[in-house]
Each structure stands twice: as C-alpha cells, then as structure tokens.
Amino acid sequence: MQTLPKERRYETLSYLPPLSDAQIAKQIQYILNQGYIPAIEFNETSEPTEYYWTLWKLPLFNARSTQEVLSEVQACRSQYPNFFIRVVGFDNIKQCQILSFIVHKPSRY
C-alpha cells in the first residue's frame, strides 16, 4: 500500500481534487437539508494557526436554495481571487460551526 505524497491539506474534503461547482452545490444542499445556516469566509492564508477568518457579508440566514449560496461564493471569488474561500455551516441550536470546506484556493497553491 502506498501513502499519499506529503503536501498541505486544507480542512474537510481536502484529500479530494478541487470540487466543481456542481459538487460544491451538493455540499451546500446538505448544509441546507440539515437546517444549518451557510456562511462564506475568506482569508489570505489557511495556516492551522490562523483561527479567525473574515466573514463575507452576514451568514445567509434566509438562504433556501444552493444557487443563492453559490452566487455569493462567486461574488467572493471575484472580489478576492487570491484568497482562500470556504463555506461553513452553523447550527443555530448548538450555537457552533458544524462543518466547513474550502471552495477556492489561490492559484499559487
């Protein structure tokens, strides 16, 4: 059995190739189906010591479709093309972040 090459990994799903918009939409649909609140965050780095990411606008409390969230991801990508961008899902009952995954990496990575 061969091990994976040593390289930097980023959050959930990081062992997979970059996700297509259709695959991102499926993950966002899961967030919505679970009743979690989607939000988009961005940061210049994805270092493990970097705990605070900047929130893109407010969390999408009223999002009912994946297209609403994807359009905000696209807007964030166009505004910050050289930043890491991730989608997070918040649980309003537990008052915490349940999941997050990278949807955009700068071209230098």
TrEMBL record:
Family (UniProt): Belongs to the RuBisCO small chain family.
Function: RuBisCO catalyzes two reactions: the carboxylation of D-ribulose 1,5-bisphosphate, the primary event in carbon dioxide fixation, as well as the oxidative fragmentation of the pentose substrate in the photorespiration process. Both reactions occur simultaneously and in competition at the same active site. Although the small subunit is not catalytic it is essential for maximal activity.
SMART domains: RuBisCO_small
Name of the protein in its database record: Ribulose bisphosphate carboxylase small subunit
Subcellular location(s) of the protein: Bacterial microcompartment; Carboxysome
MF GO annotations: ribulose-bisphosphate carboxylase activity
Primary residence: other
Miscellaneous comment as given in the Swiss-Prot or TrEMBL entry: The basic functional RuBisCO is composed of a large chain homodimer in a 'head-to-tail' conformation. In form I RuBisCO this homodimer is arranged in a barrel-like tetramer with the small subunits forming a tetrameric 'cap' on each end of the 'barrel'.
Domain Ribulose bisphosphate carboxylase small subunit span(s) in chain numbering: 9-106
One of the GO BP terms on file: reductive pentose-phosphate cycle
Annotated keywords: Bacterial microcompartment, Calvin cycle, Carbon dioxide fixation, Carboxysome, Photorespiration, Photosynthesis
Cellular component, GO, one term: carboxysome
